[in-house]
Amino acid sequence: MSLYRNSAWFLKGVTEFTRNAHLSASKRFVEKDLEVSVAGRSFMITGANSGIGRATAMAIAKKGGTVHMVCRNKDKAEEARADIVKESGNKEIYVHILDLSETKKVWEFAEGFKRKYKALNVLINNAGAIMSQRDVNAEGLEKSFATNVLAVYILTKSLIPLLEKSTDPRVITVSSGGMLVQKLRTGNLQSERGRYDGTLVYAQHKRQQVVMTEQLAKTHNTIHFSVMHPGWVDTPAVANAMPDFHRSMKDSLRTPEQGADTVVWLAVSEAAGKNPSGRFYQDRKMVSTHLPLAWTHSSPLEEQKLMSLLEDLAKTFQSH
C-alpha cells in the first residue's frame, strides 16, 4: 500500500467518514425518502444483533418490515430481538442462528430458507470479521475470507431465485472505505503467503465485495445491487479489532444509527431503487470506488477471475 494512497485515504476519512461529516452530508438528505411503510416486505440482515446490523434491523422494524436476523450468537440475538420488538412494536422479527465462517452451513441455511419462505425482498450482507491472526474453518478456508467474501457470495447466489420472485428485490452489502487503498488481488485469497495483517486482509475483502457487487449486477438485472461505506462507526467490532484507531478517533466516530442510515435508505427508499444497479454509496450518494490517481483499478479479466474462483469454491462445499 503506497504512502500516497494511505495519506489520501486518511485525509478523505477525516473529512468524509466522521460523525461531523455525516451531520454535514445529512443536510442534503431528502427526509421523505425514509417516510415509507415497508409492511409486507421481508428483509434478511446478517450480523443483526449489534452495531450497524442492529440499527438497520431496528429502523426497518419500525417501518413495519418483516426482519430475518441472521446471527452467530443465540443469546445476543434473542436479546436484540426482544429489544427491537419492544421498541418497534413489530413482532415479525425472526432469529436465525448461523456462523457465516462455516461454509457448508451457509449453503444449508440458504437452501433451507428458500424451502421455508415464499419471499425475500431485500438481502443485507452486513456481518464481517477482522481476525488478529490467520485461522481456518472446518473446511480449511481462512476464516475472515470465508465470512467476508465466500459467505456473501453463497448467500447471495443461493437466494437470488427467491429474490427474483419477490417484488422490487434488492441486495445491499456493507463494505468499508478501507477498500479504497486495496487493488483487487485474486492470487492469495486464503492469505497463505506473506505476513498476515488482519486489517489489510479485511480491506482486500471489502474490495472483493465491491467487485462482486458490480459483477452480480451485470448478470442479474432484475435485482438492484448496491454496496456501501458506512463511514467510521463506533461499533463493538471496531473497538475489538482496531483498539488504537478506536481510542484515538472515539470522539469523531459515527453512531451505529448514522452508519446504518445509507443501508436503510438503500433498502427502503424509492429514490435508491431508481439509481443504476451495482454502484458504491456513501451518505446516500453514489461515489467512486477509487481514490484519485491511485493505482487500484483492476482489469475485467481479473474481476472475472474472482467470480470464477468464488463459483468453484462455493460449489466445492455445496451440499447435494
Automatic annotation (TrEMBL):
| InterPro entries the UniProt entry points to | NAD(P)-bd_dom_sf, SDR_fam, SDR_member_12
Q: Highest taxon of the source?
A: Eukaryota
Query: What's one Pfam family the UniProt record gives for this protein?
Result: adh_short
Q: Which PANTHER family match?
A: DEHYDROGENASE/REDUCTASE SDR FAMILY MEMBER 12, SHORT CHAIN DEHYDROGENASE_REDUCTASE
- Protein's recorded name: Dehydrogenase/reductase SDR family member 12-like
Which organism is the protein's source? Salarias fasciatus (Jewelled blenny)
